[in-house]
Design goal:
By secondary structure, this protein is α/β, with parallel strands linked by helices. The protein has three domains: about 5-105, Udp-n-acetylmuramoylalanyl-d-glutamate--2,6- Diaminopimelate Ligase, Chain: A, domain 1 (3-Layer(aba) Sandwich); about 105-335, Mur-like, catalytic domain (UDP-N-acetylmuramoyl-L-alanine:D-glutamate ligase, 3-Layer(aba) Sandwich); about 345-490, Mur ligase, C-terminal domain (Protein-Tyrosine Phosphatase, Chain A, Alpha-Beta Complex), CATH 3.90.190. The protein has 17 helices and 27 strands. A hairpin with a 5-residue loop joins strand 20 (about 345-350) and strand 21 (about 355-360). The protein is globular. The mean pLDDT is about 95.
Length: about 500
């Protein structure tokens, strides 16, 4: 399928400087932001990203046969022949997103898109919304950390939590073709900062929380918030925020000042109306499910939830809020069978005790997990096994160590995905925040086995950081590895 380049430039002329439409080809073979994938006749978009600048590859793109290149307005070119083939954009990343939307014929107009953002819980809430919609007879796709899903089935891996613009719009078109009426998207701060969702219209948007993470990319929490809140600058019909989070309160205030419709989720009972859902923090564990209570406009909600759904009540509230904009909420909500790979997966150990596998990799997520699960499961001892990823935000490592020391009875520090860093240095960063010395077993499989070998009846082993992942990244190598597979010989059937 050729790219109607001239029509695209005409439609978005305000995005470009001095475009000479009469000199432009009517159509080109395609477009890409990766110069290595240029086919003769393609348009190259010189986008920027974390650690790369497309301007450095403009010459390479033309050497490979590019017909035009879209570059920043400040781009300098000394070759007059090439300069005539440059289209200068106010924002190349935005222009690339709009090109993808145009090329795939505006699929967001044919399918209802829900965007979910926040530091912790995007995967769980996205899958929970999909689960609830499917219960109502809807056809639903998901794009996120675990890949692409349709009607609860995994259909493809994705390279990122939020794929680049071309892949995002390609998947929207594919979901339309498959018959989906909805698609739930995890929206990362990186993707928002890099304009991967440019042009997209959202049916609903949801803000979960904002905690310490990605400060190697955003530098400050205020910058991080600005990136997250960019989702709410897109056109949308409905918005929901977690009002128990101070950043959520800030966002809600901004939206209300703009006279935009925003619903809130809280654990309190104030200002309850149709646009406010309250979910009680108190809950009861019944063998294999939790019982939660909620309220919408004084109407009581009884919620039966799996651990994966119910451990963090605001997540349930946000999922129900999004659902309530399109379907009346039932008075009895059933999330008892809800599960997500690598998220709050609870198992019984054959010789006694429990194992919980989760993806928690931020200080607040770890603190909330350890405090809540101890309350719910009434265990006597919590042993935590974790590490931190290499080549990622180092500033959170001592904070993770402090949380581990405060909220677990025993901590075993091990390898996560060290990438190019030395495991010993990562562990030292974690230990710098700990009040007491932790055991260190760098081989992750060995660490897990040593802990499981000695679990007792009321013990809980919490293994966090990798969750669903099935590889371990060391240097440039990816070695097959799964926390669940290491644990499997020790386990009874899943709870």
């Amino acid at each position: 399928m050729s790219f109607s380049f001239k029509s695209y430039l005409s439609l978005y002329q305000a995005q470009f400087l001095d475009v000479r439409l009469n000199d432009m080809a009517e159509a080109v073979s395609g477009f890409t932001e990766d110069s290595r994938r240029i086919a003769p006749g393609d348009v190259f978009f010189a986008t920027t990203g974390h650690g790369f600048d497309g301007q450095e590859y403009v010459s390479d793109a033309f050497d490979r046969g590019a017909s035009y290149a879209v570059v920043p307005q400040t781009f300098q070119c000394s070759d007059a022949k090439i300069d005539r083939l440059l289209i200068r954009a106010l924002d190349v990343n935005c222009a690339h997103g709009l090109a993808a939307q145009f090329y795939y014929e505006f699929p967001d107009k044919e399918i209802r898109v829900i965007g979910v953002t926040g530091t912790n819980g995007k995967t769980s809430v996205s899958h929970m919304i999909a689960h609830l919609l499917v219960q109502q007879g809807e056809s639903v796709g998901i794009l996120g950390t675990l890949g692409a899903y349709y009607q609860g089935r995994h259909v493809s891996k994705l390279p990122n939590t939020s794929p680049n613009a071309a892949l995002f719009y390609r998947w929207l078109r594919r979901f339309v073709t498959m018959g989906a009426r909805w698609v739930i998207c995890e929206v990362s701060s990186h993707a928002l900062a890099l304009k991967r969702f440019s042009g997209c219209h959202f049916e609903s948007v949801a803000f979960l929380n904002l905690t310490h993470e990605h400060l190697d990319f955003h530098t400050t929490m205020d910058e991080y918030f600005d990136a997250k809140s960019a989702l709410f600058k897109h056109p949308f019909n409905h918005a929901w925020v977690n009002a128990d989070c101070e950043w959520g309160q800030k966002l809600a205030s901004q939206l209300k000042n703009k006279k935009q419709d925003v619903g809130s989720v809280t654990s309190g009972q104030s200002n309850l109306n149709d646009r406010c859902i309250s979910i009680s923090e108190s809950s009861t564990w019944h063998k294999n499910h939790m019982q939660l209570r909620g309220c919408q406009n004084k109407r009581k909600l009884e919620i039966r939830a799996s651990l994966a759904a119910g451990l963090f009540p605001p997540n349930v509230g946000l999922a129900l809020g999004v659902l309530s904009d399109v379907h009346a909420l039932p008075s009895e909500v059933d999330l008892s069978t809800f599960k997500v790979p690598g998220r709050l997966e609870l198992y019984r150990v054959r010789h006694g005790g429990w194992v919980l596998i989760d993806y928690a990799h931020t200080p607040i997520a770890l603190e909330m997990l350890l405090t809540r699960v101890r309350q719910i499961l009434s265990v006597s001892k919590v042993t935590l096994v974790f590490g931190c990823g290499g080549d990622r935000d180092r500033s959170k490592r001592p904070l993770m160590g402090a949380v581990a020391a405060e909220y677990s009875d025993e901590t075993v520090l091990t390898c996560d995905n060290p990438r190019s860093e030395r495991m010993q240095e990562i562990v030292a960063d974690i230990q710098s925040g700990m009040k007491h010395t932790a055991r260190v077993v760098l081989n992750r499989a060995t660490a897990i086995r040593k802990v499981l070998d000695r679990t007792k009846k009321k013990d809980l082993v919490v293994i966090v950081g990798k969750g669903h992942e099935n590889v371990q990244q060391m240097g440039n190598d990816q070695t097959p590895f799964s926390d669940e597979l290491v644990c499997r010989p020790y386990l009874l059937p899943k709870v």
